## 1
Amino acid sequence: KGVVVLDTGASLQIGQMAIRMIRKVTDKPVIAVFNSHYHGDHWLGNHAFVEAYGKDLPIHALAHTREQIAGHEGNLWRSLMERWTNQATLGTKVFAPNQTVQHGQVFDYGDVQIKLHHYGRAHTPSDLCLEIVQDKLTYIGDIAMENRIANMDDGSYLGTFKYYEAIKAAAGDQLWVPGHGQGSKTLLDTYGTFMKGIYEPCEKAVKEGVGLDGAKGLVLKDPRVASRAKTMDGFDSNIGKYTSLAYLEAEKEAF
Ligand SMILES: [Zn+2]
C-alpha cells in the first residue's frame, strides 16, 4: 500500500535524508511511521516525515512512549541532540506520535503484515518490537545491539532477559534487526550472553556481600564480557556505569 517507516532517525535533517533515499527506491508515499521507544535518536526525524507527508500521517507508539515524547523526554532529547551534534540538528521540532498501539496488534498493509510485540521493561519501560510477518524479520529497536553497549539508564537487566525469552517464544526463528548495527538470527543470544556476563557476577557479588568495586572486577574478568571488551563500541566509557546499574538492580532484587 505504501512505505512504512520503523524509526525516523535523530533529527529533521536525518529524516529528510531518509526520505531522499526512500524516493530512490519507490514512488509510493510513506503511509505510516512507528516509533520503537522514546530515545530521541529514534524519533526526532518524525519532523521530516510530517513535513513531507502531512500532519495526518499516522505515527504509532506504545502509550508510555507517546506520553514521554509529548512530555518531558521529548524536549530533553531535542536539546541533548543539539548539544551532542554541535547544533547540526538545529531546527528539529518535536512531533510526538499521534496513535497509541498495543502488544499483539497486527497492521495490514496489503501483502505485508506487521505484528507488534511488547513484554515489559527491557531498554526502556516501553520498547516496541515489530515483526514483519512475511519476511520472518523483527525490528527490535534498542533491546539488543550488535557491537555497541546499550544505554541501560531506563532499562532492566532481568527485564531484558525475560523480554528475549518471551519474544523468541512468540515470534520463533527471526532475523533480529537492531536500531544500531547489523541484524542477525543469533543477535538476542549473543547480546543476551554479554548482558548476563554483566548481571550475573553482580548478582553473585550482592549475595556474597562483595561491594561494587569487587563486582566491577568480577564483571571485567567474566569471559562473556572480556571477549567483547576490545571490539565493542563505547565499552570503556560505559562498562563502569552499566555495571553499577546491574549491581543496583541485583541489590534491589535481593532486598
Ligand atoms: Zn535507545
## 2
Amino acid sequence: MSVLEESFGALRSPVSDFSEELSGLAGIYQDDVNLMVWQRQLDSDTEKAVFKVLSAGKSFSLNQIVSPENVSDALARRLPNVDGRDALIRDIALLVDAYCCLFDLNTAGLRLTQVDRAMCPRFHVDQVPCRLITTYAGPATQWLDEQSLNRQKLGRGNNGQSDSYSGLIRADADVQQISVGDVALLKGERWEGNEGRGAVHRSPGVDDGQYRLLLTLDMA
Ligand SMILES: [Fe+2]
C-alpha cells in the first residue's frame, strides 16, 4: 500500500477470520473481513438427522422466505418425514435466528438443497450483500484467500480458459475448504464498500453416488 493510500485510510486486502463461537460471526462487520467462519462439530443427533433425511431417497430442494418464528414449521412441512429429523430442524432454526439477528432482518431467503453435482464449479463472487453457507453432509465449499488469486481473471477475465489455466489461481496457491458443519458468512459484491472484494469461492466436485446437503441464507 502506498503512503498516499494509507493516509486516505484505504482498506487492507480482504482476509478471512475464524471463531469457535457462534457470536464470533459478528466479525463479518470488520471492514477487511470478507469470509467469517464459525468452526464447529455437528452434534451426533444432527449428523444422524442429516443422514436419515438424505437416505429418504427424495431428492429435494427447498427455496423459501422464512422468519425465525416460522422456519421450524416450514421445514417440518417440507422435509422428508423421518425419525430424528428435529435435530436438523433445530439447527437450521438456530442459524436463521442468528442470521436475522446479526443483520437485523425479519426474514431470510432459505435454500436447503440435496446436491449431487457441483452447482457453481468455477471460482466466483456472489452478487449479494452477505450469504451464509453451511454444508451438512458431503464435501464443503472451497475458497481462495487473497494472496492466492488474481481477481482480474474472474468471470470474463478468464478469456474462456478454465480456472486451472486462466491464471486466476496463483502458482503456489492452496485451495481452501470449509469443513462440514462449519457456518460461513461470505461477503458478496453488494455489501456496502465491498465492490471488487467479494469472497472468491466455488462448489466442490461431488463423486458419483455422493450427496451434499447444503444450506444457504440470504437477505430476503
Ligand atoms: Fe456462490
